[in-house]
Amino acid sequence: MTNDTLPIDPALVARLRDFDGLLDSSMTSSDRLMALIPACIVEGITKGPLITLALTLIGYNKRHVGMTLNDGNLGKIDSCPWFRDAQGRYRLAAD
Q1: Can you tell me the distance from the alpha carbon of 39 to that of 86, in angstroms, rounded to the nearest whole number?
Q2: Residue 84 forms beta bridges with which residues?
Q3: FRET partner for 88 with CA separation of 20 to 30 A, picked from 15, 37, 42, 73?
Q4: CA 21-46-54 angle, 5° bins
Q5: C-alpha dihedral over 83, 85, 88, 28, to 10 degrees?
Q6: What tens-digit pLDDT sequence spans the chain (95 residues)?
């Protein structure tokens, strides 16, 4: 599923919320984002504003999500699994 327009599919938001609920409760919000951002990409949400929106809808701070996306893209996060391609879409390093 590719989400290039708003709003984000409610079923997708529910899947992300469920996945978030499965993560270890002792994880920091930064560590949780390191798991949730790749989940968004796998779900077909590959544009930064849409990733930010999806994760904001499940309760994450918009600025924190945006900074995490950007820091990962700039190599500021060790072993970051994503990057932004020339078209501005986020991809997983394995793609």
Answers
A1: 21
A2: 90
A3: 15
A4: 40
A5: -10
A6: 444 445 688 999 999 999 999 999 999 999 999 999 999 999 999 999 999 999 999 999 999 999 999 888 766 777 889 888 999 999 998 75
CB 82 within 8 A of CB 40: no
* Locus of tokens 């078209």: 87
| DSSP 8-class letter at 9 | P
Q: Which residue type does 47 have?
A: K
pLDDT confidence of residue 75: 67
Question: 51 burial class (0-12, 13-18, 19+ CB within 10 angstroms)?
Answer: buried
